[in-house]
Specification:
The chain is α/β, with parallel strands linked by helices and 1032 residues long. Among the domains are: 36-95, Zinc/RING finger domain, C3HC4 (zinc finger) (Herpes Virus-1); 305-369 and 466-616 and 718-760, Spore Coat Polysaccharide Biosynthesis Protein SpsA, Chain A (Alpha-Beta Complex), CATH 3.90.550.10. A 10-stranded mixed sheet has the order 2-1-7-8-6-5-9-13-11-14, sandwiched between helices. The chain is elongated and about 115 Å long.
């Protein structure tokens, strides 16, 4: 791929394809006519063909041929201006390093004696049969499985380049060719043995022993180490997990006795309250079972990055780590600031992984010129930031987070120029921030005529709902180098086509478009998806995932590796449970011991074949036992099948006749499944990745625009069986569920240093809106055809405990209905002087005591084996109540309206903007209807407590006994809603007016109830009118 070759925009349906040049300010080559050498002062001279001599075709720095030859022979072999390595020109002598660039002999090609026909032939062969820059090339026998109808020619991986500029210049050379030597050749063996020999000699010199016996021992030791598993399961200690399981069983038994007692002892004078409480308690028990039992087999995992390097990064051999495509999605630059997205992109480009195996794709679903220009600035700044990160091995590699760390940044730093370079880099980053902020400020108000690019061309995405597809390669092999001349990973901007009348399926549709674009351009076998605000906090995160996905023994059946979500900028007390550690450190560990964790939408490395809807490879089945004729009880007698003499010949002839028909039907089935793109369909058959062959660069470019067209998915299985699944705003749950139903398993990876970190909405209103979106997605899944209650039973590949977990993810919003009723019961009991339970005996009280003890003991033992603090556990319990009676309740109502009445809801992007004041956003109050139910419940219970205590004081000593149970019930609700109350109050003396209005309104309502109760009026018993009459 050539960087900065222009923005490619087009529409397949309209047969349009445009390359917009000149948007980026590219420095032109200097006019070298009549110039002198900048080194010696002599004339530059001419080449053997009579053309002006140009030593560096990257920057055109004027150097004469003698200085060029001297620099190649005696110097650094780099251009003095751009630091690009000088390439060998015609007539120049070979120097060490030329064999890395050329794979032909100089004697055979010293003179241009080929005719045009041969040149075109060699050009085609170079395109179709060249090796990829990443991964090992395969021979024809491995690719013989691909249907010829689909490939057209031999399907061999070619270079991942995506040429956009003039084809003559791009096709005349191969960028970064794969080494000529193949395994098994003499040259390959010499290089491999030489590399090992040098390593062994160095080791023996350090040990002071050159004995031949030790050489063999160390060689065997390293080989054995490389053959070891790349990861292992770390089971929870039996002293922690066995008591936990025993308490779960005991709690289940106690719960059964408790519910039996409650059902068998009704309250006759408050039958409505009693029945409501019984229904709520039965639902809570069912919900607890769904949540608890998937945590029966929790495990930890451990990875071995050194073994990964020993196996796939051997010295003297090509790097064999698998290529990875990284996807980042953004929509609105006002809610998702470009500076936040830029930090995520910079952390990706600086990750510790081979640069030629890494590609970053940014999906701009808002077609914003602001995002486009910010990415251009990011690409330019990365040329300085990436080498700084790798030189000094800094963490994290997102500049905003790195420079804001309040730690000793000099720890473990030994480079003498580190402080000086860090100060210079911080200044560069601050200037970069100013440029990006200027772009954002400029984009606040769009001009009436629309945005205009630097070359005067109108921005293709001026109409965000009606624009062509756009692709821009910011960083590639050609032009993608940092300031030190090192290669940078690919960076590609993608904005899919949007037209009125088409359903674009929001984020899920954008992710599927990225899958297809990446398959055409790079086709890495693994893909990592990140939200635009989730930067890479651990530069070895991709290697951690490869320890599972590239493991020879278990990796083939792993569909994805999920990392936990960690967040920055959360207040110390985590008032609204934003960290969600109970879910990520307890529930996900439990699922990892069954069939794997659920997919949570970000921080996940996928296997591309799993997203394509393929089933996992089947393991070897145990052979069936065949017995002899004398014992029919064991096994089954194998029958002999007799064939007629001409049967084989006839079958072979029929097979030959139907071969073309079968290939044609296979081709039609693939197009119906994946879409009408021969190049993309061929890429889906390459399990190890690699770009399928293309007849010309123009065809490859046209295909990339084609696969992101708005009508490409029509009449295909995209969104139903392939890629990200449509039908819910929480497409992540559906996508992972489909993979698990096919028999795949997933892995939960928790490295000591968090792999990724993001931002969370710490404001109460934003937090509730985020939870509302998640809950609404679960309700949509529950009413869809993919409901875990009904889907996936046919093949029986989804384990039962895994199904319990998926059922729980879809039914938990419905818990809001019994939870709302249960939180209202204490106030009703206090105001009406009724209770949901009859007077209990001493024996019956043991059920309540045992139940509460089992609940607390289960929680304590969970914290013991998981490492979650009790404060985090309590915050999670509080927000379960807050979210349950607000966001979850609205999600159920909106979900029912969508299913029954067809009323759809709009998806709201969570704001990623940060406040300059530390936790200033925490105290900001934003009114939303989600606050009404918790506010009402809170005030009702407070009024009920006051009314109940006043009534007890008025009635005397005998009324205090029944009051304690009601007060305990009410205080349980109030304590759980305490963070919500603090959120309403905001900072001290800054109570919002809307809260005052609601408080006065609700207080007035309950004043009427207060008058009806009359707690301070002595209740005297009068005459019985049934016996005495009215005039008694």
């Amino acid at each position: 791929m050539e960087a900065n070759a222009g923005l490619v925009a087009g529409s397949h349906n309209r047969n349009e394809l445009v390359v917009i040049h000149g948007h980026e300010e590219i420095k032109p080559l200097k006019n070298l006519d009549g110039q002198v050498c900048e080194i010696c002062g002599d004339q530059i001279g001419l080449t053997v063909d009579g053309d002006l001599f140009v030593a560096c075709d990257e920057c055109g720095f004027p150097v004469c041929r003698p200085c060029y030859e001297y620099e190649r022979r005696e110097g650094t072999q780099n251009c003095p201006q751009c630091r690009t390595r000088y390439k060998r020109l015609k007539g120049s002598a070979r120097v060490p390093g030329d064999e890395d660039e050329e794979d032909v002999d100089d004697i055979e090609h010293e003179f241009n004696i080929e005719d045009d026909h041969d040149r075109a032939k060699h050009l085609t062969e170079a395109m179709l049969h060249g090796k990829m820059t990443y991964g090992r090339g395969h021979d024809d026998e491995e690719n013989s499985q691909f249907p010829p109808v689909i490939t057209g020619i031999r399907s061999r991986p070619v270079s991942g380049e995506f040429p956009i500029g003039p084809y003559r210049d791009q096709m005349s050379k191969r960028i970064h060719p794969y080494p000529v030597s193949e395994p098994g050749s003499a040259r390959w063996d010499e290089k491999k043995e030489g590399g090992w020999k040098e390593r062994m000699d160095d080791w023996k010199l350090q040990q002071g022993n050159l004995g031949p016996e030790q050489e063999d021992d160390i060689d065997a030791t390293m080989v054995d180490e490389a053959r070891q598993p790349l990861s292992r399961k770390v089971p929870i200690a039996s002293s922690k997990i066995n008591p936990y399981r025993m308490i779960i069983v005991a709690r289940l038994v106690i719960l059964a006795f408790f519910l039996r007692y409650r059902i068998m002892n009704p309250v006759h004078d408050a039958i409505g309250l009693w029945l409501t409480s019984i229904v709520c308690e039965i639902w809570f028990a069912f919900s607890w079972i769904l949540d608890q039992f998937p945590k029966w087999f929790p495990i930890d995992r451990e990875t071995y990055l050194d073994r990964l390097s020993l196996r796939y990064e051997r010295e003297g051999e090509p790097n064999m780590l698998a290529p990875v495509d990284i996807f980042v999605c953004t929509v609105d630059p006002m809610k998702e600031p470009p500076l936040v997205t830029a930090n995520t992109i910079l952390s990706i480009l600086a990750v510790d992984y081979p640069v030629d195996k890494l590609s970053c794709y940014l999906s701009d679903d808002g077609a914003s010129m602001c995002t486009f220009e910010a990415m251009s600035e990011t690409a330019e700044f990365s040329r300085k930031w990436v080498p700084f990160c790798k030189k000094h091995n800094i963490e994290p590699r997102a500049p905003e987070m790195y420079f804001s760390l309040k730690v000793d940044y000099l720890k473990d730093k030994v480079h003498p120029n580190f402080v000086k370079e860090r100060r210079a880099m911080k200044r560069e980053y601050e200037e970069f921030k100013v440029r990006v902020n200027a772009i954002v400020a400029k984009a606040q108000k769009a001009p009436a005529e629309g945005w205009i690019m630097q070359d005067g061309t109108p921005w293709p995405g001026n109409n965000t709902k009606d624009h062509p597809g756009m692709i821009q390669v910011f960083l590639g092999h050609s032009g993608g180098h940092d300031v030190e001349g090192n290669e940078l990973p690919r960076l590609v901007y993608v904005s899919r086509e949007k037209r009125p009348g088409f359903s674009h399926h929001k984020k899920a549709g954008a992710m599927n478009a990225l899958v297809r674009v990446a398959a055409v351009l790079t086709n890495a076998p693994f893909m990592l998806n990140l939200d635009c605000d989730h930067y890479i906090n651990n530069s070895k995160a991709v290697r951690e995932a490869m320890c599972f996905l590239m493991d020879v023994q278990t990796g083939k059946k792993v569909c994805y590796v999920q990392f936990p979500q960690r967040f920055d900028g959360i207040d110390r007390n985590d008032r609204y449970a934003n960290r969600n550690t109970v879910f990520f450190d307890i529930n996900m560990k439990g699922l990892d011991g069954i069939q794997g964790p659920v997919y949570v939408g970000t921080g996940c490395v996928f296997r591309r074949q799993a997203l394509y809807g393929y089933d996992p490879p089947k393991g070897r089945k145990r052979p069936k036992m065949v017995s002899c004729d004398c014992c029919p009880c064991f096994g089954r007698r194998k029958k002999k099948v007799l064939s007629k003499p001409g049967a084989n010949v006839e079958g072979a002839s029929l097979e030959g006749v139907d071969e073309d028909k079968q290939l044609l039907m296979s081709h039609m089935n693939f197009e119906k499944r994946f879409g009408q793109s021969a190049i993309f369909v061929t890429s889906t058959l390459m399990e190890e990745g690699g770009v399928p062959p293309s007849s010309s660069p123009a065809a490859l470019l046209k295909e990339a625009i084609h696969v992101i067209s708005c009508g490409y998915e029509d009449k295909t299985e995209w969104g139903t069986e392939l890629g990200w699944i449509y039908g819910s705003i929480t497409e992540d749950i559906l996508t992972g569920f489909k993979m698990h139903c096919r028999g795949w398993r997933s892995i939960y990876c928790m490295p000591k240093r968090p792999a990724f970190k993001g931002s969370a909405p710490i404001n109460l209103s934003d937090r509730l809106n985020q939870v509302l979106r998640w809950a609404l997605g679960s309700v949509e899944i529950f009413f869809s055809r993919h409901s875990p209650l009904l889907y996936g039973y046919k093949d029986g590949k989804l384990k039962w405990l895994e199904r319990f977990a998926y059922v729980n993810t879809t039914v938990y919003p419905f818990t809001s209905l019994p939870l709302l009723a249960y939180c209202t019961l204490p106030a009703i009991c206090l105001l009406t002087d009724k209770f949901i339970m009859p007077e209990i005996s001493t024996f019956a009280s043991l059920f309540f005591i045992a139940l509460f003890l089992s609940i607390f003991t289960t929680g304590i033992l969970e914290l013991r084996w998981s490492g979650v603090s009790i404060e985090e556990w309590w915050r999670n319990e509080q927000f379960w109540v807050i979210g349950g009676i607000s966001a979850h309740l609205f999600a159920v109502v909106q979900g029912l309206l969508k299913v029954l009445a067809g009323i759809d809801t709009n998806f709201t992007v969570t704001s990623k903007a940060t406040d300059d004041d530390d936790f200033g956003e925490l105290y900001a109050f934003k009114w939303t209807t989600l606050l009404i139910p918790p506010t009402t419940i809170l005030i009702i219970n407070l009024v009920g407590v006051v009314a109940g205590v006043s009534d007890a004081i008025n009635n005397g000593y005998q009324s205090w006994g029944p009051l304690f149970g009601k007060l305990f019930f009410a205080f349980w609700v109030i304590v759980h809603l305490y963070p919500f109350l603090k959120g309403l109050m905001g900072r001290q003396n800054r109570t919002p007016t809307i809260v005052v209005i609601w408080s006065v309104l609700l207080a007035s309502i309950f004043s009427l109830l207060w008058v009806r109760i009359d707690p301070f009026v002595m209740k005297t018993k009068g005459p019985d009118t049934k016996h005495c009459g009215i005039n008694c």
